[in-house]
Amino acid sequence: xxxxxxxxxxxxxxxxxxxxxxxxxxxxxxxxxxxxxxxxxxxxxxxxxxxxxxxxxxxxxxxxxxxxxxxxxxxxxxxxxxxxxxxxxxxxxxxxxxxxxxxxxxxxxxxxxxxxxxxxxxxxxxxxxxxxxxxxxxxxxxx
Length: 143
Prior knowledge:
It is built from five helices and no strands. The chain has helices at about 10-40, 45-75, 80-105, 110-115, 120-135. Helix 1 (about 10-40) packs antiparallel against helix 5 (about 120-135), helix 2 (about 45-75) packs antiparallel against helix 3 and helix 3 runs antiparallel to helix 5.
């Protein structure tokens, strides 16, 4: 076993930590901001409940992503790290691009400040992608 295999993958740890931080912000800061306005809106109740369910589905994905990246960073889990990291990477990059597309489509470039979620989603996607590619040998550790 090489010396690097006995240590946690620091890039995956960082990506997992940032993903976990994002999940915490989403759940503990975002939920109160969204919950009451959504439920007290004039939307038909089935629609507001559907949107609330979607909010909580995102919470699950964010928490699971952070956990997967942190788990993949552990030395004994390296064989699964690449596929987990690449899956999380694609998911978070696409989520970030959705926020950018909606922001710019509806409010122009100033919309990027209105919907800043992309600023946390894209870095996790890039870090997880780099870790996944490095883990499967596509890019070297020195890169």
